[in-house]
Amino acid sequence: CCAGLRNLLQGLRFSAKYHSKHNPPQTMCPSSKIKPKKCHILDCSESTCTYRTAPPGSILPCRFFSCKEGTKVPSKRKQNTSIVTSDLLHKNLLKSEQENWNDISPTYKAMTKRIREKLEELHNMYTLNSGSPRMRFGENVYFEENGCIFLAKADDVDEGNADILFSIEDLGFSDAFIQRIRISPDQSYMAIGLKSENSEEAICIIMKLGNFPVVEKVIPSVFSFEWAANDVLYYTTQKNLKCQNVFMTTFTYQKHTKLVYTEQDARFFVDLYCTKDRRFLTINSNSKTTSEVWLVDCRHPFESPTLVQARSTGVIYHIEHRKDQLYILTTYGEPAEYKLMQAPVASSGKENWQLVYALEKKTKLVDFEMFSDDCIMFLKNAGHLYLNVISFVSHSVQSVKLPTWACEFELESHPEHTTSTCYFQLSSPVHPPKHFAYSFKENNLIEQAVQEVPIITNCHTTRLLAKSKDETLVPITVFHNKNSKELHRRPLLVHVYGAYGIDLHMSFKEEKLMLIEEGWILAYCHVRGGGEQGLSWHRDGCQHNKLKGLHDLRACITLLHQLGFSQPKHTALTAASAGGVLAGALCNTDPALIRAMVLQAPFVDVLNTMMKTHLPLTIEEQEEWGNPLEDEECMKYIKSYCPYQNIKPQCYPSVFITAYEKDERIPLTGILQYVQKLRKAALDHASRTSKKGNWIPTIILDVQANGSHCDSSWEHSLNE
Question: What residues does the Peptidase S9A N-terminal domain cover (predicted)?
């Protein structure tokens, strides 16, 4: 239910990551009583990226562009020659890197065998026992495990008694996983979003439920979908990584499909959301900084949508509904952080918005859920998670602290807004998800022993503040084994992202727990550009402020070493996607701070990418990186930190990069050229110096034939 809001709050990151493999409609096997296997994929409600076994919420953040180089030329013949030359260069570089990988990978055979065995052991011990998020409809509970969707009675779900409604394998989608589930209000239909690891697009399968569930319809290239009525589905389509059209389709009486809304501005991305009381379906058109919402009255789903408030530059807003009042989560007004406001449905313009509640300074709004008499805000402040429960009856606000070990949460879907309990899961990189609930009647937090998942007790969590170049205090979250001695001798893995207002991904991963058990220290640097301390934290690290994120990262690593957490020769830096900008920049400016760098599908050539307006998302991305085509100062500024542009002969750390041959957001050519240039610079430096003990860094690129941008199942991520 909160998928649209999670997209909005996570820096308006609209990454369409779904699957487009089409099978003809077919009849499912009759539902049968089985004991469900444990899950691989946990997400049954989010519309964002899904990872392995951990909740996606924070979708591992995404980078949107190609890093291909080349210039436009007027001559068609010259242009064709340029394309042929570029393709040949790409093939030669790829072949060279594949040969290099084939030569070097056997060196790590014994190590990878040991790691695989350990990760499988941890996966079986923790993740398979953690349970999956659930969708609750009265006495019915829907959940997804192991590629199947199950239906159980609330009293039986923990006993393992459930009916199977849908199976990926039975329908022939063996390489796909379930990304999103929506049940119609009367539970007669179920819409399922399926995505494969090799495509950005998804398909939506509509199933008619009953004693013999059948596939009613298959819709290709779908991003988001919501039920406006029992048999009326609204959905958005995706093309070239953009989502700008909304359609309505019906399944009974006069079956038909029609276009409802089209977004004309290339900077805006459209998705759908239903208010918790199901009174309205909202069509949300958002850029990185601006929103516009249209309402579809679910009592009259065939009527045209009505506008809430015309887009106003810099104003983001999201709509909920309760008792003929719109509740607006918005950045409107000062300070430009999220606040809860309300207005009558009939007079929804911002001149009528009245303040209900404003967040404290440096507080991150992680999520928001509306109920009949209350709403819950999931908040983060100074690295700690807590709840604010706002009562519309008593007009009071109650703050509820969550366990100190918790770093990430996932809201479980409970579509009935009249429920008296809010269900969610808490986790951390080294703590498997645990089920919790908040009772409005009892006003207390309940830890649910749905399935016993032991909390890791030998891991110590420390929260630090590093002073950056401009005196700003930057949060760091550190994990290490309580029994570790001489921490300055222990290896340290530093994590960074710092873009799009998105938090570092801090839900459970088996490999993080494995590292802790083997004596590693894990540090998460919440630098500016990310969203850990609210919208201003993002604004202070985007466009002409990007270097602040680099200064923050440098300050964090320096403080860790000063406090005795490892030392440079035992320190590795890891980043994914747009996090590659800051990691790659630090590798150029302060290579002596780290010994190794690990990047996954990294964005490493900001300048060339932002100069290419023919790429599908360049214009949209200008709100994050700036527009170097029209602003010479912006061009100079990007060039000052761009990882690819600033490679030079010096002693670099070793580098391991994973890239994906079919990645539509960061195609391979740019990464191939980055690796080639980096390797040449390292070799040039080594050839010019004869200092005793001089070393040549190991620079490896592993090109995965399968998989898409930072998005993988448990099996695929295990292979990585």
Answer: 114-444
> What Rg value do the Cα atoms of the chain yield, rounded?
25
pLDDT at 450: 52
Q: What is the pLDDT of residue 433?
A: 87
Mean of the per-residue pLDDT values of the chain? 83
Q: In the beta sheet, which residues pair with residue 322?
A: 325
User: In sequence order, what are the residues at sequence separation of 6 or more whose Cβ sits closer than 8 angstroms to the Cβ of residue 179?
Assistant: 17, 18, 19, 43, 46, 47, 50, 193, 194, 195, 202
Burial of 499 (0-12, 13-18, 19+ CB in 10 A): buried
Q: DSSP assignment, residue 276? A: T
Alpha-carbon distance of 131 to 589, in angstroms, equals 44
Question: Is the distance from CB of 669 to CB of 675 less than 8 angstroms?
Answer: no
Q: Which of 325, 327, 331 is nearest to 344 (CA)?
A: 325
* Residue carrying the six token digits 């805000």: 377
Q: Choosing from 367, 503, 663, 711, which is the catalytic residue?
A: 663
Following DSSP, what letter does each residue of 1-21 receive, concatenated? --HHHHHHHTTT-----B---
- Cα→Cα distances 246→4, 233, 257, Å: 14, 10, 11
Could you say which of 15, 566, 577, 708 is catalytic?
577
Question: pLDDT value at position 18?
Answer: 27
Separation between Cα atoms, residue 583 and residue 247, nearest integer Å: 41
Active site residue 709: yes
pLDDT at 49: 32
Q: What is the pLDDT of residue 58?
A: 28
Q: Pick out the chain residues at pLDDT < 50.
A: 1-8, 10-79
Q: Crossing angle for the helix pair 579-589 and 546-562, nearest 10 degrees?
A: 60
Total residues found in the chain within this entry: 720
Pairing of strands 654-660, 699-704: parallel
Q: Answer yes or no: 663 catalytic.
A: yes
| DSSP code, position 474 | E
Note the pLDDT of residue 566. Answer: 96
* Residues 6+ positions from 576 with CB-CB distance below 8 Å: 60, 61, 497, 599, 600, 601, 602, 710
Q: Is the pTM of this model over 0.90?
A: no
- Any idea what the Cα angle at residue 140 is, between residues 49 and 3, rounded to 5°? 25
Identify the pLDDT of residue 267. 87
Beta bridge partners of 353: none
Contacts 24+ apart (CB under 8 A), 631-636: 633/544, 634/543, 634/544, 635/607
Rounded CA-CA distance 513/536 in Å is 32
Which phi-psi region, left, alpha or beta, contains residue 126 (left: φ > 0; alpha: ψ -120 to 50)?
A: alpha
For 619-637, letters b (16+ CB in 10 Å) and e give ebbbbbbbbbeeeeebbeb
Relative orientation angle of helices 510-517 and 109-125, to the nearest 10 degrees: 110
3-state secondary structure 568-586: HHHEEEEEECCHHHHHHHH
The residue type at 706: N
Cα separations (Å) of 395 from 277, 319, 355, 391, 398? Answer: 20, 20, 13, 5, 10
Q: Where are the strands (E) in 596-642, listed by range?
A: 596-600
Task: Give the helix/strand (H/E) hosting 446.
Answer: strand 444-447
DSSP 167-223: ETTTTT-TTEEEEEEEE-TTSSEEEEEEEETT-SBEEEEEEE-SSS-EEEEEEEEEE
> What distance in Å separates the CA atoms of residue 307 and residue 535, rounded to the nearest whole number?
25
Comparing C-alpha atoms, which of 29, 28, 16, 50 is closest to residue 178?
50
The residue from 431, 709, 711, 717 that is catalytic is 709
